[in-house]
Amino acid sequence: MGGLPANRTVNGFAVDPQNPRVMYVAMRDGLYKSTDADETWKRIGGELKNLAAVAINPKKPNEVYVATMDGKIYMSADAGMKWKKQQ
Amino acid sequence: MKREFCLWVFVAMIGIFLSPTRSFGMQEEHKKSAGFEHVHALSMDAAGQTLFLGAHTGLFRSEDGGRFWKKVALPAKRSHLDVMAVTPHPREPKTIYVGTHEAGLLKSTDGGTTWREINNGLGGLDVHGLAIDPNDGKLHVAVREKGEGIYRSANEGGKWTRVDDGPGGEVKVLSSVNISTGMGGIFLYAGTAEGLQRNPDCF
Predict the structure, then answer these.
(1) C-alpha dihedral over B85, A2, B11, B135, to 10 degrees?
(2) Is residue B102 within 8 Å of residue B125, measured between CB atoms?
(3) Nearest to B192 among A2, A10, A86 (CB)
(4) What radius of gyration do chain A's Cα atoms show?
(5) Closest listed residue to residue B41, CA positions, set B80, B79, B85
(6) ipTM score of the complex?
(7) Is residue A77 in a domain?
(8) Disruptive mutation site among B17, B36, B196 for chain A (greatest number of A CBs within 10 Å)
(9) Full residue range of the structural domain in which residue A52 is found
């Protein structure tokens, strides 16, 4: 359960419906991912910051979307490794 | 945070861690791809086709992965609603629940064309999170300010019952996670101003 910045606001949270051990957390500091049901977390998404929300495509769980607080949308087709801006 | 049955447990570094009334027609207006003003929520419908985004300026939908957005008209006496939570039903692609800062909960069963209020039993109308149990469809919502707490509905929002004080810190997002607690339930996670928190769904 380590790896998330302490006492920081969690703005967004999404879980893979096909494998609920996989979770994503969106924060001002960036995007964090757990693959072991909240035991450990790692920051992913490179320079992604000021995140307000995260979503998973339930039909294709490797397809992940994040939104920044000011409304920029980014998408990853590989479960968070590579990201591209959608607008 | 000390209600009867369960204890909220902090995750983060310190711990671990939604009277039907009216129907309304949908009016969509085109929206530029950005400029939502303070995004609160993002989610995709069960069909994996439509992205929904909740923001201070309302509810938006995108059919192309977030490149182009249309504003979805929601029922309200006010000029706009601050959309705090958007939760599509996990198995029924046309069913969507929306939590708002001013008007409580709204539900659509036709993919967002018409909406109705589902606030029967809620102690307040400032809804900050909405979770659906993927197994039985049970709903939980987090209400702030007046009537603050966690409310549950076992009949798709027809009636709400307050079940817990809720986690510490302002709730930003609420989610039912299909991981067994070993006590016959699953976990309810909350993203809050004090980090990620979780609690066995045993209220």
Answers:
(1) 60
(2) yes
(3) A10
(4) 12
(5) B85
(6) 0.97
(7) yes
(8) B196
(9) 10-85
DSSP state letter for A34: E
Residue A23 lies in a domain: yes
Cβ of residue A7 closer than 8 Å to a chain B Cβ: yes
| A80 within domain boundaries | yes
Number of domains chain A is built from: 1
Q: pLDDT digits over B113-130, tens only? A: 999 999 999 999 999 999
Cα dist from B121 to A17, B18, B128, B162, whole Å: 29, 10, 16, 8
Length of chain B: 203
Find the helix or strand (DSSP H, E) in which B200 lies.
strand B195-200
Q: What is the CATH number of the domain that holds A26?
A: 2.40.10
One-letter amino acid at A36 equals D
CA pair distance B27, B159, nearest whole angstrom: 28
Hey, what's the torsion of the CAs at B30, B34, B35, B38, to 10 degrees? 110
Residue A5 lies in a domain: no
pLDDT at B18: 38
Distance, CA of B16 to CA of B13 (rounded, Å): 8
* CA dist., res. B11 & res. B196, Å (int): 5
| Cα atoms found within 13 Å of the Cα of residue B162, Cβ hemisphere only | 15
pLDDT in tens, B157-188: 999 999 999 999 999 999 999 999 999 899 99
Q: Residue B32 corresponds to which tokens in the numbers above?
A: 């530029």
B11, B13, B16, B42: best mutation site toward chain A, by most A Cβ within 10 Å? B42
- Rounded to the nearest 10°, the torsion over CA A5, A6, A9, A10 is 60
Task: Please tell me the distance from the alpha carbon of residue B106 to that of residue B39, in angstroms, as a whole number.
Answer: 18
* Cα A31 to Cα A27: distance, rounded to the nearest angstrom: 6
Return the bridge partners of B70, or none.
B30, B61
